[in-house]
Specification:
Helices cover about 65% and strands about 10% of the residues. It is mainly α.
């Protein structure tokens, strides 16, 4: 896989997480053109660099934990 393709997917993934529009891992795999396993690999890499990501069942999207916790505190 070419590095430019990986970088493009990482930027798209970051944008979708910020916008709260990832959908499920299966949806996200179709959007990014990768396997569901690869989606989890990307999420794992985000977590390793300190961009903690979790899945919000209510919103049906992946979210950054910091953002998620701020929204929960505001309820």
């Amino acid at each position: 896989m070419a590095l430019d393709s990986i970088i493009k997917r990482v930027f798209i993934l970051d944008d979708l997480i910020r916008q709260g529009r990832t959908g499920s891992a299966s949806d996200l795999s179709k959007t990014l053109g990768v396997s569901t396993r690869q989606v989890y690999n990307y999420i794992s890499k985000f977590n390793k660099i300190g961009k903690t990501v979790k899945y919000d069942l209510e919103k049906n999207t992946f979210v950054y934990v910091e953002k998620y916790e701020k929204e929960e505190a505001g309820k």
